[in-house]
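Form 7-S
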Amino acid sequence: MEDTALYLLWSGLVAAGVSAAVYVVYAMQPRLAVLSIPGIAATSAGTLTVAAGVGAPSRRQRSRTVGGVASLAAWTSVAFGGAGLIVRTIALDHAPYSNLFEFSMAFGFAIALMYVLAERRFGTRILGAFVMPVSFGLYASALAFPSEGQEVLVPALQSPTLLTIHVALMILAYAVLAVAFGAAVMHILQGSAGRRFDWLPAARRCDELTYRSVLVGFPLLAAGVALGAFWANDAWGRYWGWDPKETAALVTWLIFAAYLHTRGVRQLKGARGSWIVVGGFAAVLFTYLGVNLWISGLHSYAGV
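Output:
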């Protein structure tokens, strides 16, 4: 069963890579959202408009749009990745969070999941060109780590309920903040106001997508850090010990808190607030990967 989980997870990785590539192609040809199909054009928001008149494409032809293929591949990645994580959980009898291979797979899956939900909610498909490559990168980073599952967990991880909820919240928070990162990069490219690039949403729209994503990810991150403190007390007998992973997670939370504060109180103009979000996501990646690889601490049980 563990082999089946691996096949599913690898399929999720491949689908994420296909999706990322097609989203980039979609972004590179904003005037031609359909390959070899006349009558359809992409708007700056990433939606499609169909030219009326003779020769308008059928419903079957519309499903062949580049954007549609990208979205389908993203959903496929979510389906395979989710199935793989479920099967691996059943095979190992614990949540797949015990090493960096599992966490990377879960992180890549979660980013894809949060993105497709954001695309469905906001209808801004062009965002996929900035978010799905991140999902694929996290999926692919698992290739650098041993894939063998741990049937017997180290003592610090033998708290299944708290571990599952704490790590799941952190992964979801990081995934939503990855969506915010993608929107922030669009905002930075678009500039302070007006429209520098016709193929990107307006600067105000990019700012709105960034802000809404952080509004979702920030409380999830706060809840994950708080539950991590309860888990630390259960595992090590103290709620907070300034372990490198704890400190990095706190710094990440403070960066996004600074973004929300400055945006709400000072109303940062232009893309300056988006630079804070980009810095915050860099802190996310350092907390996720850098601490485990380069700094030893109580959280150094990730299988590397």
